[in-house]
Amino acid sequence: MADEEDLADAPRVVGVLSALLERVVERNDAVADELTAETASAASLAPPSAFRATARPDISVRSYMARIARFAGCSPACYVVAYVYLDRLLRRGRRRRGALAVDSYSVHRLLITAVLAAVKFMDDVCYNNAYFARVGGISLAEMNYLEVDFLFAVEFDLNVSPETFGHYCAVLRAEMLYLELEGPPAPAAAGPKLHSCCLSEDDGSSSSSQQQLAA
Question: Do 100 and 93 meet the contact criterion of CB atoms below 8 Å apart?
Fold first, then answer.
């Protein structure tokens, strides 16, 4: 498949994060589909959000991540930081009524926005919002709005400590080992929503995972 070929040339973390998110999306879609049978529509089950599309995009998570990796030109560390940001958004959203779920309607917009925020914070040189909008398949106005909404949702908390970075590398490394061994789902990836994919930023870290994910 074309997306698999693109991912073969991308940093390992891109494929690992894609696989993890695909499982999260699949679980959340299954939950929504079950509830839809009892209600009018899937859209009515989720709170209003700029990150929720009105229809499920045709492109898969894996293909979308491959596209971002091909054109964004960002460092591998940005994908780990983007994962941290996504988890922060969902954890803090969980404290508010109607937390956003990562499903087929929201995952693409969440991904492009999280990567954009990570690139701006981590890399010395990056493309502007207009470029990322084209990569993500949205308008510049949408990209600008999503960025602002995302920053407020994470409360402008963009700093990632070495300990936190190492912890999330460890979570992704567990996912990588699961993919290589094709065993049962990694414990760190259990749960129906992305905010259940990790423990907490205060938990242990693993610096040895960083080089493997960036390879």
Answer: yes
Q: Which of 50, 153, 52, 156 is nearest to 101 (CA)?
A: 52
Phi, psi at 179, each rounded to 5°: -65, -35
Q: Which residue has the higher pLDDT, 36 or 19?
A: 19
Q: What is the pLDDT of residue 78?
A: 95
CATH number of the domain that residue 156 is part of: 1.10.472.10
Domain count for the chain: 1
Three-state SS letters, 8-67: HCCCHHHHHHHHHHHHHHHHHHHHHHHHHCCCCCCHHHCCCCCCCCCCCCCCCHHHHHHH
Q: What is the pLDDT of residue 36?
A: 60
pTM score, whole prediction: 0.78
**Is the pLDDT at 154 greater than 50, yes or no?**
yes
Domain range enclosing 124? 2-214
Question: How far is it, in rounded angstroms, from Cα 20 to Cα 191?
Answer: 11
Which stretches of 102-186 are DSSP H helices? 107-122, 129-136, 140-153, 162-181
Token representation of residue 194: 């992305």
